[in-house]
Amino acid sequence: MKKIMFVMSAVLWLTACGQKVEETNASNNDSSASQSTVVQESDSSSSSTVQSTSKTSSTEQEVSVSTSDSVDIEKREQEQKLEAYNNLDTPLKVLLATTLVDERAETPGLQGYGLVYNFSGPFLFVNINSGAGTGHPIIKLSFDDAFIYPVEGIVRNGPSQIDPYPVPTDPVSKVTLYEKYLNEKEKYDSSIPNVRISENLTETYFDKLKGIIGQ
Q1: Could you give the angle at which helices 2-86 and 174-183 cross, rounded to 10 degrees?
Q2: Angle formed by the axes of helices 90-98 and 174-183, to 10°?
Q3: 172 - beta bridge partners?
Q4: I want to staple 190 with a disulfide (CB 3.0 to 4.6 A). Which of 10, 109, 151, 165 is the partner?
């Protein structure tokens, strides 16, 4: 009887140990599965972040390239317009420059007026007149490769009265003048027959008249 009870106790003990081992293995399996899921989620999140960063970087590069291309195109257009202005006939360039300082230069065909000009020293001198009377300013301008700079003006208001003639002195780009010409090409072209050079319009002559101011 004692032997039978001993054998039954041993069987029950072995069964309990087997259940514990199975529970331990199941717990370990659950833990491994959980860890695997966490790792997969982390890898997925990291991959998503990398892809998002890559897309953002790619978009920024595309915007940068597009902006650079636009700047290059605009620069080329400006250079072409500047070259086109410089290739215009001298009387036409003089007329366009004169529009900056004397509104009468905008008269279609310069009807009723004549524009005389001369290059003396580093300056351009212009004068619009009707061929009679006084009050017709002589204006001094300078220029470089890209801009026109009005400098100063004088005007005869009587036989011996010379007064300063105010002019805007802000520089104006030749590109701006060329665009202006394109907008009203027919008007400016029609004025050219009334534009001519005058060798008497020199820097010395201008300074001589300027010296009479206030006398």
Answers
A1: 80
A2: 100
A3: 148
A4: 109
